[in-house]
What we know:
The complex is a heterodimer.
Chain A: E1 2-9, H1 13-24, E2 27-28, E3 37-44, H2 47-57, E4 61-65, H3 73-82, E5 88-93, H4 98-106, E6 109-114, H5 119-145, H6 148-176, H7 188-215, E7 224-226, H8 228-245, E8 249-254, E9 260-262, H9 264-280, E10 287-294, E11 298-305, H10 312-316, H11 339-349, E12 353-359, E13 363-371, H12 372-389
Parallel strand pairs in A: 1-3, 1-4, 4-5, 5-6, 8-10
Antiparallel strand pairs in A: 2-3, 7-9, 10-11, 11-13, 12-13
Helix pairs in contact in A: 2-3, 6-7, 7-11, 8-9, 9-11
Chain B: E1 7-11, H1 15-27, E2 31-35, H2 38-47, E3 52-56, H3 64-75, E4 81-85, H4 100-105, E5 110-113, H5 118-129
Parallel strand pairs in B: 1-2, 1-3, 3-4, 4-5
Helix pairs in contact in B: 2-3
Amino acid sequence: MAQLKVLVVDDESGIRSGVARILGNFHVTYPFMDEDYTFSILEAATGEEGIEIIDRDMPDIMLLDNKLPGIQGVEVLEYVRKKNLDIVVAMITSYASIDVAVRAHNDGAIDFIPKPFTPQELKTSIEQITKQLYLRRITNTLKVEGRKVRFQFLSVLSHELKAPLNAIEGYLRLMQERQLGNSLDDYASAVERSLQRIESMRNLIMDLLDFTKVSFERHLENMQEINLKDLVSMAIVTVSPYAIHKDIGFNTDIRRCGKIWADPNDFEIILNNLISNAVKYNRNGGTVTVTVDCSEDDFTISVADTGIGMNADEREMLFEEFSRIKNEKTRNISGSGLGLSIVKKVVELYHGVIEVTSEPERGSVFKVIIPKMQVTNIQSQNENTTGKNS
Amino acid sequence: MVKNNYTVLIADDDPDYLFQVAFYLRKAGYEVVAVESQAEAEQVILKMKPDIAVFDLMMESDDSGFILCYKLKRKYPEVPVILATAVARETGVSFGLNSEQEREWIRADLYLEKGVRPEQLDQEIRKLLKI
């Protein structure tokens, strides 16, 4: 049994003893935690007393009332944040003004427990908080090791590259051992599946090459005036076999945005990835709309589809390397999980941002916004470099 | 070898690997319940008790296999679990059942690198089932 120290800072003694009673025999369990977490309660009637206990006993969790006789709850919270203490804080409060809520949230309060609360409400909050704390500590441990990110990239890459090889090898062995019968026809689906796996592996390798390319420095000699209209048309042609197969229609609305200096390969990567995703994750008979628009300071490439869309959780992990959204709807869609992280990298090279709005079952809109200034700067850097070299 | 009293639950989101393993194990005489996701495996665990389980590590999430281990062991502590994954040790990420700490964390009975030959899997299953 691991025990977490919960500090309750509230001037109402009824609340403090209530929390102590409810959490006294409560425990929280989580996958891979070998032991359940139980709770010991520390009580403080004022903020000042709370800070004293924090310094002395270092609680894991703090339940904090905002309205206190002396210093206010948010000030205690600020103290915790400034000293960078590893304490998860939840505010307990009967009325929280928006101001207090915003301030508390900015200072790291992760939860609000409305007062009065039922034992179940408190337990639910504590359960969430404990999980948060647990995950936060695990993450910190990993961060200390530092090398995690690179390893993760390599390990997932090795996973993604090995899986198709294993599958194809398996089918070849089935054939070698004539496990499915003596006629070639018995192996039609094994051959078909092997070919599909080879195709998706080829795509992964192509994406991987793109990925390494954009990780390197810009090749300034490749910068030139690009024509977005042509690049969009090219990307649409590239994806058209698949689009025809899925009966997808295209709308384009390309405004002239003046001169844009860039490496056309970079914009090919951006457009190819966004437009092919818009086809891939569309419904049959859907539409893809590509628009290019500009303001004084920047230009915006937007690619909208009428496809399966995403929920908020899925949106969050979208740009991470190898993050593929896995669910019923995407099961038969192949992808390397690298495309959008490559796009993001490229867009960032041009000091731009990529945004996504999406609604499940309605579709997604990806917007790339790139400042015109930056593109010009890269151009002038280019000239400088060329000047130095010559 | 009469093994059809034994039910193997296999969860793996690679449909080809799943097909191949299920094919060999059925041929070797096991009853096989094959599912493609953590969610489906959880449904199966609610309804039936397998004699042994083989879980892929990364399915809907990176730790699907761990979570399935945990859930299965909570309900049926005596059912052996094999975790299979294609994540290679040479990348520097080794998570196996090599240390006491890992064993405590990952409540699996055996950790196998994917790409293991079906005969070897059959052997490992027999070892764990003591048949």
